[in-house]
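Kindly inspect this today.
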Amino acid sequence: MLRVGAAGAGGLLLSSAAASQTLWSGATTGMRVDLAPGLKPYQPAAAIQAPAGVNPQLFQRALAALDSHRPYVAARDFVGIVDFSLPSDQPRFHVVHLPSNTVESHLVAHGRGSDPDHSGFLERFSNDYGSYATAQGAYITDGTYDGKYGLSMKVAGLDATNNNALGRAIVIHNAWYAEPDMVQEHGKLGRSEGCFAFGRKSQWAVMGRLGGGRMIYADKIA
């Protein structure tokens, strides 16, 4: 599930120049994502507009987080923005390419502790151990490992609202309950234990864009 912003499909998915900005290396032993030679990290400006399909208020919060965590987030070309105001049957994990202002949007599951009645809507965030809930705030992508769901990517929380992410083993992984056919059959995705769970195709797309210490910002606009 994806949506492409105003710059058009060639600006992100079909452009060889854009594709060269993220390079996989050693899929079975780890992952490295490199900027294209000579590409300078993007410096966000307050005047930049949200691409089509991304909540403008959430987008500005994500840009503010990117600036506030500048010492930790060196790669500033791609950013992940997760809109947990939307239900799980909507593509709400937005991968934004800031230089071209284009976006890919993917289905993503939230934690079962955030949706105890399995309504498909995230009702609450939690950073607590044992909560099995999604936590809000800014994350930075970390290394990969081969786990229960195959190749997965660790994330570290940068805020007081999600700083237990590594200890809680919050990661990016694929899961059967996050595949698009779950929406067709049940009208919503299943729930994770707090992780960013995707269908397999989306997981690889997200890790390919956001690996290498890029930022993910997760929040909900009331």
Q: What stands out?
A: The radius of gyration is 16 Å. Residues 138 and 166 are 13 Å apart (CA to CA).
